[in-house]
Amino acid sequence: MAALHRHQLVRLNEAGWAAVRGRPWDEGAQACLAHWSVHGLPLVVTQQRGALADDQLALGLPAPRLWQRRRRALQVTLSDVLYFDEFPLAAELTGLLPPAARGAWRALLAALGAAGATVRVYGSHGWQRITGLSYLHAGSDLDLRLSVADAAVADAVVAALQASTLAAPRLDGELAFPDGSAVAWREWHPWREGRVDRILVKRLRGVAMETDDAWLGERAPC
């Protein structure tokens, strides 16, 4: 099995869904899980905290507006997994954006690609694209997972984001490095410039405030 990462999607097999739905959920959760099961919709890998067995995965289901946007946490075993999946590539989200924003969005994606990033969209926009259900509201951020090879690529990616003329929706999300560590892209530039002395690094099994660039290993040219 390939290494897991945060914001990875998981699709369950029939036995997995039967096990999940057989737990003592409330009525709203049962209705939501029934919809997910019938339509083969994915769950998402969350931080793997607590006393998980080697064959267990901690997953989440952020429900749409139909089920009050409640977040469900659950655990499955690897034998429950049909296959692993990913959130949509950013170009697939263009149709969800206001027409007036699409030109700036396409220009941004071109700049991010030129900088060396692979861009996927998670959060409300990603879930609405996958499920066809209503997640978005007027203030929904556009959450980007920006996969970068190293710190130099991250610098170029953040520069492209800062230069973008996309006014709305607001761009949020993370720079994701090959070892699975991730940082908020908006926190990267102040940290690289030394305007703050630490940065929050998120990993599959927890988070840590890092005070230097040792966590980047050899990928941190300044």
Structure explained in plain terms:
This protein has 6 helices and 11 strands. The chain has about 220 residues and is an alpha+beta fold. The model is unreliable at about 220 (pLDDT under 50). Helices cover about 30% and strands about 25% of the residues. The chain has helices at about 15-20, 25-40, 100-115, 125-130, 150-165, 185-190; strands at about 10, 45, 55-60, 70-75, 80-85, 120, 140-145, 170-175, 180-185, 200-205, 205-210. Strand 7 (about 140-145), helix 5 (about 150-165) and strand 8 (about 170-175) form a beta-alpha-beta unit.
Would you kindly provide a brief summary of this structure?
This protein has 222 residues and is of the alpha+beta class. It has two domains: 9-85, no CATH class; 90-219, no CATH class.
By DSSP (H or I, 4+ residues per run), the number of helices equals: 6
* β-strand number: 11
- Tally the structural domains: 2
Main sheet specs: 5 strands, antiparallel
Share of residues in helices? 25-40%
- Arithmetic mean pLDDT: 94
Distance between the termini: 34 Å
Low-confidence stretches: 218-222
Query: For the largest beta sheet, what order do the strands appear in spatially?
Result: 4-3-2-1-5
Category by helix and strand content? alpha+beta
Instruction: Give the quaternary arrangement of the chains.
Output: single chain
What proportion of the residues form beta strands (DSSP E)? Answer: 25-35%
Q: Which series of helices and strands comes N to C?
A: EHHEEEEHEHEHEEHEE
Q: What does the overall shape look like?
A: globular
Radius of gyration: 18 Å
